[in-house]
From TrEMBL:
This is Hydroxymethylbilane synthase. The lineage of its organism: Bacteria, Pseudomonadati, Pseudomonadota, Alphaproteobacteria, Hyphomicrobiales. Monomer. Tetrapolymerization of the monopyrrole PBG into the hydroxymethylbilane pre-uroporphyrinogen in several discrete steps. It is an enzyme of class 2 (transferase). Residues 202-270 form the Porphobilinogen deaminase C-terminal domain.
Length: 280
């Protein structure tokens, strides 16, 4: 609206409930992974019921349905994970044997890597449900994306933040992306002025990295690309689900080669980890 000086009446917001929103009692890795957050929305795009779809980038599979593409990114929010606990100031301060709730395999594996003594349990539900469970004492702590808490103006619940140097975020964390039909020029023109170039460059590298590793909800992978002028640096990690072993990578180069940098980092980790790495 703002970019094109259009009235609110020029747009219609269609709320689509996805399978990922509705399945709350099982890990997503058991029932279909990331596509559960996009399938119903992409069906609506493909049959013309909607013209553009707004997603959390970290929910997006690396392979999209034919005819669709990520065509814009909004400026990226804070990428860090937030630590929430009434019992400790940081993850490392939690008492021995504490219980941490998380539905993310990446967070579960990285928590176990840093604190093998901690019991990590499955923790599904929307944000309000997770906060209520924490308050009621179902778990001693949980981790959530700081970006989501900032957008919902809930930063007051954050106990501390985990810096990327010790706890790499999920690929795409904090970035909202827009998906549309590649042959819909009118929508592409509408989106062009709000496409944030720095975020697009960073996410191009991160998604290329993830694609090489066949990243899904079944794989504990962290990755973050940063830009310093024209120089792009990507850091990545792959962790065994039980946290006992991890491999890390860092690759840098000109931002114009973002996709190649991401692919090279992914290939390096693939070679380091070997085919049986994720079998536990």
């Amino acid at each position: 609206m703002a970019a094109h000086d259009l009235p609110e009446s020029a747009f219609e917001i269609v709320v689509i409930k996805t399978s990922g929103d509705q399945i709350q009692d099982r890990p997503l890795s058991e029932v279909g992974g990331k596509g559960l957050f996009t399938k119903e929305i992409e069906d609506a795009l493909l049959d013309g019921r909607i013209d553009l779809a707004v997603h959390s980038s970290k929910d997006m599979p690396t392979v999209l349905p034919g005819g669709l593409a990520i065509t814009a990114f909004l400026p990226r929010e804070d990428v860090r994970d937030a630590f929430l606990s009434p019992k400790a100031k940081t993850l490392m301060d939690l008492p021995h044997g504490a219980v941490v709730g998380s539905s993310s395999l990446r967070r579960q594996a990285m928590i176990k890597r840093l604190r093998p003594d901690i019991d990590v349990v499955m923790y599904r539900g929307n944000l309000q449900t997770r906060l209520r469970k924490l308050e009621e004492g179902h778990v001693d702590a949980t981790l959530l994306a700081h970006a989501g808490l900032r957008r919902l103006e809930l930063t007051h619940v954050v106990t501390s933040l985990l810096e990327p140097e010790e706890f790499l975020p999920a690929v795409g964390q904090g970035a909202i992306c827009i998906e549309s039909r590649i042959d819909d020029q009118a929508t592409l023109d509408l989106l062009a002025p709000i496409d944030h170039l720095e975020t697009k460059i960073r996410l191009t590298a991160e998604r290329a990295f993830l694609a090489v590793l066949d990243g899904s909800c079944r794989t504990p992978i962290g990755g973050l690309a940063t830009l310093n002028g024209s120089q792009l640096t990507l850091k990545g990690i792959i962790v065994k689900p039980d946290g006992t072993e991890a491999h890390e990578v860092e690759r840098s180069g000109e931002a114009t080669g973002a996709e190649a940098i991401g692919k090279a980092a992914g290939e390096t980790l693939k070679a380091l980890s070997g085919p049986g790495f994720l079998a536990v």
